[in-house]
Specification:
By secondary structure, the chain is an alpha+beta fold. The chain has one domain. It contains three helices and seven strands; from the N terminus they run βββααβββαβ. The protein has helices at residues 43-53, 59-62, 87-91, and strands at residues 4-13, 18-27, 30-39, 64-67, 72-77, 84-86, 97-100. Strands 1, 2, 3, 4, 5, 6 and 7 form a seven-stranded antiparallel β-sheet that branches. The radius of gyration is 13 Å and the shape is globular. The two termini are 24 Å apart.
């Protein structure tokens, strides 16, 4: 079985070049929570994958913006949406992906 990611949320801002992906990694009988950091250039690819799984919802309308003095932070919560993708789909054309496990 290939590794699947159940994406629970995305967080990014206009100051940094990385996107924080909060997800549950599932492979066979093993699953664990993780945080992935991917390049901002892969954000559109991930949003397109998630939008295809949720055609009845416009995910762009679900993004919450929080304004701070120097930057704006954006957050998308996917608790109510279908969000299971394969590891390779999420990785896509990204050359670098950092995974943090605790």
């Amino acid at each position: 079985m290939e590794t699947q990611l159940e994406i629970k949320g995305l967080r990014f801002n206009d100051f940094d070049q990385q996107v924080c992906v909060m997800a549950n990694v599932i492979k066979d009988n093993l699953s664990y929570w993780t945080t992935l950091f991917i390049d901002m250039t892969s954000l559109n690819h991930i949003l397109n994958l998630l939008q295809k799984q949720n055609p009845d919802t416009n995910l762009m309308d679900e993004i919450i913006a929080k304004e701070y003095v120097d930057f704006t932070e954006y957050e998308l919560s996917l608790d109510q949406h279908q969000s299971v993708c394969s590891w390779e789909e999420v990785k896509g054309r990204s050359k670098e992906m950092k995974q943090i496990r605790a």
